[in-house]
Amino acid sequence: MSTATSTPTSETPKPGTPKKAPKKSFFTPGRLIAAGVILVVLILMFFSTKILTGKEATEAAPGTFSPQSYAQEKFDSEIAPDIVKRATELAVVQKAIAADPAAAAKKYGVVSGSSPAVYSVKFTGTAGKPEANGQLPVTVPGMPADIKVLVQTGPAINGTAVRDATGKVQFSQFKNQIDYQNVGAELNKQVKDKVLANVDPASLAGKKVAAVGAFSLINPSAYIITPVQIGEAK
Questions:
Q1: pLDDT truncated to tens, each residue of the chain (234 aa)?
Q2: Domain ranges within the chain, ordered by starting residue
């Protein structure tokens, strides 16, 4: 009587082979609970986060430097009054520059490092037609015919003449170049908001105007002045 022997199949483990542990599901109760906790935390963080827009977005967080606040505080209290106080008749400044630029800068201007001198000036003249670039030409008695006198009226106010005119706003006072540049931009915004907001350049054409402002001597044939005061001459 013969004894039948069984032949191992691929499904039958060989003797001595350890059994494979069953695969664990990723979605175990522990992991599901942890994921739920994280989701709840994220939702709470979203609803507790304040999204800043408009004016709030431009203001610095408490304890940080704000170029906007600096400009708002300094423009009326220090910078504009100092430019008015320092202002010399434009024709006088021009003659001094023509005679001796270095001496003129020392007597009437403010020089910061290697930058061109910045002058505080005042003048009365006849306004022309506003130019497309936002500059108002003014014919000033005593000024040479080959030198244009242009007053910035916006909407864009360029340069840093207002920032640099007094010598009291120095790079060393700020943490970095960005803050220093932003202060210049914010002071120009003060000019737009407080000096030019109620000025209609087109209505001044052909009229006598009086202005006080500052300019940087970059182009000797065009004095581009940023005003801290401007209006019809009385």
A1: 544 455 555 455 555 555 555 555 555 666 667 666 676 556 655 554 444 444 444 444 556 889 899 999 999 999 999 999 999 999 999 999 999 999 999 999 999 877 899 999 999 999 999 999 999 999 999 999 999 999 999 999 999 999 999 999 988 888 889 998 999 999 999 999 999 999 999 999 999 999 999 999 999 999 999 999 999 998
A2: 87-232
- Give me the residue label for tokens 């008695």: 141
d(CA 214, CA 224): 8
Contact assessment for residue 67 and residue 184, using Cβ atoms and an 8 Å cutoff: no
Residue 125 structure tokens: 């003249």
Distance CA 214, CA 161 (A): 6
Domain 87-232 has CATH 1.10.760.10: no
Residue 8 burial (CB count, 10 A): 9
Does pTM top 0.70 for this prediction? yes
